[in-house]
Backbone:
């Protein structure tokens, strides 16, 4: 009989630390209670089975060797049962979602300067990477060519932290419109897109150099031009002298005298990709709705309809970007269009 599955101590009504005397006393008392003599047949059979268990418990627990083996088997069986029904450990908490990455550019916009047909403009370099310095699995330029610029090299990226893009001006169509032009270059890194503004000034191509075949004609032409230019230079010197005399000093009530204005502030260049905005405008091209002259109108400019008002520091930065070593000042604080770089 497998005694491990039977609690022999419970059969005798004893604790597991009972001594031999307690075992003997409990066995005799339970035997007198369970004796089958004088009982009905149904109860006599149950009493006989109980006496078998009592004899088994007494025989096992009274023998120190058998008792030690029984206790050891019971502990092993209990440990196995607890291990079987032990609940699995809870799963680890889910990892927090990764923070979205943003692209950092060394230049938000680049200026290629004067560009015309056949000219070799200076090359510009744009470096793009993520703000956390993480490696780039895949990067490319979505548009590699514009109307006046093109990407000269776009290296493949594989686990690098920076995408280097080289941009050069040129390839301008002969009938291209002249003036300042700005286009967008779109960079795509691992599903994140950033935009770089590319600006250039489209100019008329310079005249071709003279040839030796018509040198005599050119010499006479140059001589005639020298005479004409000498007269024009003299006239210009006289005019500039008169203008200097008339306009060497500009007066303002609150600031006294200062040198004449040299450059106008280019807010389109400073505010790009937004549009310079004044109160009263209905759209970016609306000129009739602007308040040109009002109290402190010079300080009502903003970049975009809802952008913050531009301060003196913003105008100084715009002047230094376009004309180094200059500062901005309004000719009339009540006139929004009187800002100049000096």
Residues:
């Amino acid at each position: 009989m497998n005694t491990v599955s039977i609690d022999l101590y419970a059969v005798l009504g004893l604790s597991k630390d009972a001594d031999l005397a307690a075992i003997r006393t409990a066995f005799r008392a339970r035997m007198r209670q369970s004796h089958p003599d004088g009982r009905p047949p149904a109860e006599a059979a149950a009493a006989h089975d109980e006496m078998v268990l009592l004899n088994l418990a007494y025989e096992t627990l009274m023998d120190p060797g058998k008792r030690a083996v029984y206790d050891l088997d019971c502990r092993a069986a209990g440990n196995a049962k607890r291990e079987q029904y032990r609940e699995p450990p809870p799963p680890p908490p889910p990892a927090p979602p990764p923070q979205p990455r943003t692209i950092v550019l060394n230049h938000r916009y680049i200026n290629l300067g004067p560009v015309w047909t056949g000219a070799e403009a200076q090359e510009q370099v744009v470096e793009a990477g993520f703000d956390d310095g993480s490696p780039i699995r895949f990067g490319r330029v979505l548009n590699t060519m514009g109307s006046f610029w093109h990407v000269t090299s776009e290296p493949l990226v594989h686990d690098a932290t920076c995408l280097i893009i080289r941009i050069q001006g040129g390839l301008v169509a002969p009938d291209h419109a002249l003036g300042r032009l700005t286009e967008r270059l779109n960079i795509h890194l691992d599903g994140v897109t950033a935009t770089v503004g590319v600006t250039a000034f489209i100019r008329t191509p310079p005249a071709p150099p003279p040839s030796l075949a018509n040198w005599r004609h050119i010499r006479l032409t140059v001589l005639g031009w020298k005479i004409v230019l000498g007269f024009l230079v003299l006239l210009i010197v006289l005019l500039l002298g008169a203008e200097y005399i008339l306009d060497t000093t500009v007066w303002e009530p609150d600031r006294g005298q200062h040198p004449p204005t040299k450059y106008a502030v280019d807010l389109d260049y400073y505010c790009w990709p937004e549009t310079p905005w004044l109160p009263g405008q209905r759209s970016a091209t609306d000129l009739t709705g602007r308040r040109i002259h009002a109290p402190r109108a010079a300080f009502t400019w903003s970049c975009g309809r809802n952008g913050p008002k531009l301060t003196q520091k913003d105008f100084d930065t715009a002047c230094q970007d376009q004309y180094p070593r200059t500062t901005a000042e309004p000719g009339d604080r009540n006139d929004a269009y009187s800002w100049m770089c000096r």
About this structure: Confidence is low (pLDDT under 50) at residues 247-260. The chain has three domains: 8-85, 103-203, 267-341. The domain at 8-85 is CATH 1.10.287.110 (Helix Hairpins).
